[in-house]
Write a structure and sequence with these properties.
Largest sheet: 8 strands, parallel
Distance between the termini: 22 Å
Strand content: 15-25%
Number of helices: 12
Radius of gyration: 19 Å
Helix content: 25-40%
Number of strands: 14
C-alpha cells in the first residue's frame, strides 16, 4: 500500500506564560506529522522556532515540498539528503521511526541498537522575571533536584542569588538565551561560581561567542543556539564544555544520535533539551537522553494540557513513552 502523509497545526496553552530573554509566549504552536502505510501509523511532532527563522507556515511548506519523496517510501537516511536540519525534518524523521516501530512490532530503541530506555530526572524551568517572582517560583519547586533558570539581562546577580537562596538543595542550570554581553559575562560567571551553579547555557550570542575561549570559565558553559549539527562541533572546542542537543535543531532523532556520539568523542558533556511542546515532542528525546549529563525534557509540565496518552511524570522523573504515544 502507498504511504500517506498528513499534517496538522495544533496549539497547546501554556500554564501561565513562558518567558525568556527574547520574550514571552502563552501557547505552544506545534505541527503534527502522521505517516500511514500498510495499516500502520507513525507520528512525529515539531515546534517551529522563530529564533531560527521558522514559523508554522514555513515548516509546513518545507514538509509539503518533500511530500512526493516522503510518500514514495523515503527512509531516514535518505531524508537527511532531501530535507535541511530543523523542525520540519524532525517531525518527519520521528514519524518514520514510529512508523517502522509499529510496522515491525519492535521498539525504536531496538531498531536503533540502543538499550531499553529507563526513567530520567529532568530539569524544571523557572521563567525569567523579577527576582522576587523567580524566587517564589523556585521556592515552590525547591523539592525538585534540578532547576533550569531563565536569565539574560544586563545584571542577573540578584536573580541568581534569589533563586539559589529559595532552592538551596537544588542543582541549578542558568540559561541566558544569548542575553549576556562581553561587558557583563565575567561578572555573571564569577557570581554563578560563588553560588555553586552547575551549568550556564548559551551566555553570549551565537556567532559572537569567541570570547568564551579567552576568559576563565569557573562554571561549565553549554552551547545551545551555537550548535545545530556535526559541522558546528569543531569550532566549539575551547569555548564550550557541553552542548545542548534538541531534536528540532538537529532535524530529528537520526541526526541527533550521530551528533551525540561525535560530541562525546570530542569530550563534550551532553545536555538533551527541548522546545515547549507536548509529550510527543519529548518522547523521542528520552531515547537520546539516556545517560546524558543534564536532561531538560519538561515541556509537558509547562502546558495547561497535554496529549492523551502523554508521558508519565512523577515529580521530576519522566518515564519512557508507551507505544500508544510513540516508539
Amino acid at each position: 500500500m502507498p504511504r500517506h502523509l498528513y499534517l496538522e497545526e495544533e496549539r497547546f496553552p501554556i500554564a501561565g506564560a513562558f518567558t525568556i530573554a527574547r520574550g514571552s509566549k502563552t501557547e505552544a504552536e506545534v505541527i503534527l506529522c502522521t505517516l500511514v502505510e500498510d495499516r500502520a501509523q507513525g507520528r512525529g511532532e515539531c515546534v517551529p522556532y522563530r529564533r531560527y527563522g521558522e514559523t508554522t507556515e514555513s515548516v509546513r511548506l518545507q514538509i509539503e515540498t518533500a511530500r512526493s519523496a516522503i510518500e514514495s517510501g523515503i527512509d531516514r537516511q535518505e531524508l537527511i539528503d532531501v530535507m535541511a536540519p530543523g523542525a520540519a525534518r524532525n517531525a518527519v524523521d520521528c514519524a518514520l521511526w514510529d512508523l517502522q516501530a509499529k510496522q515491525s512490532g519492535r521498539s525504536v530503541s531496538e531498531l536503533a541498537g540502543l538499550a531499553a530506555p529507563q526513567p530520567l530526572e529532568t530539569a524544571f524551568t523557572i521563567s525569567l522575571g523579577e527576582p522576587e517572582r523567580m524566587a517564589a517560583d523556585a521556592r515552590d519547586n525547591a523539592w525538585r533536584p534540578l532547576l533550569k533558570v531563565k536569565v539574560g539581562t544586563a545584571d542577573d546577580r540578584s536573580r541568581m542569588e534569589a533563586v539559589a537562596k529559595a532552592a538551596p538543595n537544588s542543582r541549578i542550570i542558568l540559561d541566558a538565551n544569548e542575553g549576556w554581553t562581553s561587558s557583563n559575562i565575567e561578572m555573571h560567571l564569577a557570581e554563578a561560581a560563588r553560588l555553586g551553579i552547575a551549568l550556564i547555557e548559551q551566555p553570549l550570542p551565537a556567532g559572537s561567542d569567541d570570547m568564551l575561549g579567552r576568559i576563565p570559565r569557573p562554571v561549565p558553559v553549554c552551547a545551545d543556539e551555537s550548535v545545530h549539527g556535526l559541522d558546528d562541533l569543531t569550532d566549539l572546542r575551547g569555548r564550550y564544555d557541553a552542548i545542548n542537543i534538541k531534536l528540532d535543531k538537529t532535524g530529528g532523532l537520526t541526526a541527533a544520535l550521530d551528533l551525540r556520539r561525535a560530541a562525546e568523542a570530542l569530550g563534550f558533556q551532553i545536555m538533551v533539551g527541548c522546545m515547549v511542546g507536548t509529550s510527543l515532542s519529548m518522547a523521542p528525546a528520552i531515547l537520546l537522553a539516556q545517560g546524558a549529563n543534564f536532561v531538560d525534557l519538561d515541556g509537558p509540565l509547562l502546558l495547561a494540557r497535554d496529549r492523551d496518552p502523554g508521558l508519565t511524570y512523577t515529580g521530576s522523573i519522566v518515564s519512557p513513552p508507551v507505544s500508544a504515544l510513540w516508539g
